[in-house]
Amino acid sequence: MKKKALIYSFGAILIFCFASFANAQDNKDVLAALTKYDNVWNKKDQKGVDAVLHPSYLYFSSTGGTTDRKRTLEFLISPKYILTFVERTEISTFGSDNTVIVNSRWKGKGTYNDEAINDDQRCSLVFTKAGKKWLLLSEHCTQIVTK
C-alpha cells in the first residue's frame, strides 16, 4: 500500500513539474515573440510584423478606436510615421492553455502626420498559440496619466 501511494505521489510530482516546465517554456516563447514584434515594429519591417500578427489581429486605441490588421500594417509603413525613441518595460505575463496576456509599459516618441507622439502607455498584448508559434491576437494601450 505504501509503495502504491509512493508511486502515485511521484507521478503527481512529475505531472506538476512537467506542467510548470511547459508553462515556463510558453512564457519564454511568448516573450521571444514580443521581443521579435518590438524589433520588427521599430524597424518598420512590414513582413516581420505581418509574421507576428494573428490573421484576426485587432488594436484597441487609448481613444476608444479600433484598427484591424490591414490598417495597422499600412500605418506602420507610412512615411508620415516616425519613431525616434521606444521602450517597453514592466513586463509580466499571465494566461492559460493557448492564450497568454503580456502586461507592459510602452513609451514612444516621434511624429505622425507632423504631430508629436509622446506616449507613455500601459499595454496588454494577447498572444495565442497557433501550432508551435505564438501570434499577437490583440493589443490595447491606454495612456498613463499622472494626477
Question: What this model shows, in words?
Answer:
The chain has 147 residues and is α+β, with helices and mostly antiparallel strands. It has one domain (2-143): Nuclear Transport Factor 2, Chain: A (Roll). 39% of the residues lie in helices and 46% in strands. It contains 3 helices and 6 strands. It has helices at residues 2-42, 46-52, 69-77, and strands at 53-60, 66-68, 81-96, 99-112, 115-130, 133-143. Strands 2-1-6-5-4-3 form a 6-stranded mixed beta sheet. Helix 1 (2-42) packs antiparallel against helix 2. It is globular and about 45 Å long. 11% of the residues are buried. The model is unreliable at 5-22 (pLDDT under 50).
CATH class categorisation = Alpha Beta
- Taking the alpha carbons of the first and last residues, their distance comes to 64 Å
Number of alpha- plus pi-helical segments: 3
- Series of secondary-structure elements, N-terminal to C-terminal: HHEEHEEEE
Biggest sheet layout: 6 strands, mixed
Class of secondary structure makeup = alpha+beta
Q: What is the overall silhouette?
A: globular
Uncertain segments are: 5-22
Radius of gyration: 19 Å
The third-level CATH topology is Nuclear Transport Factor 2, Chain: A
CATH architectural name: Roll
Number of domains: 1
Mean pLDDT: 86
How do you describe this structure in short?
The protein has 147 residues and is an alpha+beta fold.
Task: Give descriptors for this structure.
147 residues, alpha+beta, Nuclear Transport Factor 2, Chain: A, six-stranded mixed β-sheet, 6 strands, 39% helix
